[in-house]
Design a protein that fits this description.
single chain; mainly alpha; 5 helices; rod-shaped
Length: 125
């Protein structure tokens, strides 16, 4: 069975081997070993920046895509809401019940509620 070594322990073992190879004086070995251990701890605790260097640009694209999909869904569902209003549905609750009876679901696949109908109507204005 192999023993799992932490990154810190691997760096510490490396530092010990480097010190033994390059330095002969015991005092210098201890000082160098301490310095290398401190650098190893600092390196291991360092937080790397996000991998995506264009994170702001990626966020803008994601927001634009979400807004585009929402606008497409509003364009799809608004004629149904208008039909419900023509059939006599006055309140958002009545429109939601009408949409649910007809089998329409929200963009995320849920049943319609008064609030979701209200958001669609006010966003379309």
């Amino acid at each position: 069975m192999t023993q799992h070594l932490s990154r810190y322990r691997v760096l510490e073992m490396f530092a010990e081997s480097v010190v033994k190879l390059e330095l002969g004086d015991k005092d210098n070995i201890e000082a160098a070993f301490t310095r290398i251990k401190r650098q190893a701890k600092k390196a291991l605790n360092h937080r790397a920046p996000p991998r995506n260097e264009n994170l702001e640009q990626a966020r803008k694209k994601a927001v634009a895509s979400t807004k585009r999909k929402a606008a497409e869904f509003r364009a799809f569902i608004m004629p149904m809401i208008k039909d419900a209003q023509k059939e006599g549905c006055v309140s958002t609750r009545q429109i939601a019940e009408w949409l649910n009876k007809k089998g329409y679901s929200t963009s995320r696949g849920f049943a319609w509620s008064s609030g979701s109908v209200h958001r669609i109507i006010t966003a379309a204005d």
